[in-house]
Amino acid sequence: NMGKQFVRLAADIVIANSTGKGFNTEQLTEMLKSVAETLEGLAAAPEGMAVEARGLKVVAPTDWKTSIQRNAITCMICGYSGKLLTPHLKSKHQITPREYRKKFNIPARTPLVSKAYRAKRSKIAKETGIGEKLKAARKAKQASS
Questions:
Q1: CA distance 4 to 117
Q2: What predicted TM-score, i.e. pTM, was given to this entire model?
Q3: CA gyration radius for the chain?
């Protein structure tokens, strides 16, 4: 049955995109329906005809802690997923990281990047001694003011 095949494919897509992101059953069900309908629509469309993925809603996580994963961070506004969020927030939502953190009650010092990206940045900072350089610069600035 063709319909069952779309549901199976949709389930694979939804599982791949939602694992560990804190979605509730209702959100997952909506995504599943939406993806299955879209796949069915794409399959039914005449070849060569551009088909818009109408109704394919990406559901954003509801808890900021689940939005920050090992290899990606998910936008809580639209569901976009990437290694870092700041460029996306500025270009797609015209808001600053500070406004975003405030909107979702995210602690001010929480980096809006994936855990892997954060670890990589930290390693580079340690290797280049950037922390020590910053400390020295702050001390020099305090001494001159």
A1: 39
A2: 0.52
A3: 21
Single-letter amino acid, residue 67:
S
Instruction: Supply the pLDDT for residue 97.
Output: 93
pLDDT of residue 31: 79
Neighbours of 60 (CB within 10 A): 18
Residue type for position 47: E
Distance of CA 36 to the CA centre of its chain: 22
Using alpha carbons, select from 15, 18, 120, 12 the residue that is nearest to residue 74. Answer: 18
34, 39, 79: which is closest to 55 by C-alpha? 34
| CA-to-CA separations, 45 to 8, 38, 48, 97, 129, in angstroms, rounded | 20, 11, 9, 41, 57
66, 96 in Cβ contact below 8 A?
no
Please state the rounded mean pLDDT for residues 89-117.
92
**By the 8 A CB rule, do 6 and 12 touch?**
no
Tokens encoding 117: 């990206």
